[in-house]
C-alpha cells in the first residue's frame, strides 16, 4: 500500500498546474492530475511519464461528481483548471461561466465528499479591475470583463462552500504569472507568449501603448510554492495576493527579450499598473518570491523553442482579434 499523501491537481497539465505537480512530487506526494487537455499539454508532464505516483485523467472538471474515485483519500486539492483570456470571454460569456463557475462547483463537491484537508483555488487579480496600487486583498472588487467575473464568482463559490459546508478552502489571487510552459495555443493573450513567438519569427514585438505600463510579473515556480504554502497551513477561509510586489515596465521585458518593436493601440479595461501588496502572504505564510525578473526571463529564453508552434501575432491580426474588446469595453469607459 502506497503511504504517500495524495494531492489532486485540476489543470495539472497546464502552465501553473504542471509546475505544482513538480513541486508536489518533490515533496513526496502522489498526484492525480485532472485535465481535459484543451489548454494543457501531456509534454508538460513528460518528466513524470514513468512515475507511478502521477496519474493523469483526461476529464472535463464539469464531469466530476461527489464520490469520484480520483479524490478518494486526497489530502489537498489544487484547483487550476479553467479557461482564460479576455476576448473569448467577451464573445462566449456563458462558456466561461459554465467552466469557471459550475466547473468549480463540481470540484468543490468532489472535494467535500472526499473530506479533503484543504482546497486551494487559483483566483485572479483581475477581480480588482482598474485598481489602486499597491493592491491589497481588501480592495473593492470591480471585474471589467466576463473572464474576471467568472473567476471571482468561482472564488466566491469556494468561500460559500467553506461557510455553509465547512470545506477547508483558501484562495490565491494571481497577478502576472510567467515562465516555462505558459500557453502556446488559443486566443491572443499573455504578453510573454506573443513576444516569444514574434522573436522566433524575427518579427517586431507588438508593444501595447508606449510600453511604460507596468506588470507585477511573478515566476511560475514561486507561484507554485505559494499554493503549497496556502495548503500546508492551519489557516482556512483566507485569500492572498501573489505577485512579486515589484512591477516591471513592459519596455523592460522588451529590453530583456531583444528585437525591434512596433506599437499598437492601448486597450480599454487594462490597468496602467498591476502591483500586488504581498504583505499579507509574506507575514501569514512566510512566503516570498525568490526568482528575480531577470533570472526568470533568462529561464524562459533558454526554453524559447517551446513557443515555436504558437500562433504568430502581428498588428493586423491583433486588431482583428481584439475588435470585440474595443467595441464592448469602450462602452464602460468614461
UniProtKB/TrEMBL annotation:
Pathway assigned in UniProt: Bacterial outer membrane biogenesis; LPS O-antigen biosynthesis
Protein name: NAD-dependent epimerase/dehydratase family protein
Family: Belongs to the NAD(P)-dependent epimerase/dehydratase family.
Domain of life where this protein originates: Bacteria
Gene3D superfamilies found in the cross-reference section: NAD(P)-binding Rossmann-like Domain, UDP-galactose 4-epimerase, domain 1
Domain NAD-dependent epimerase/dehydratase, chain residue ranges per copy: 8-243
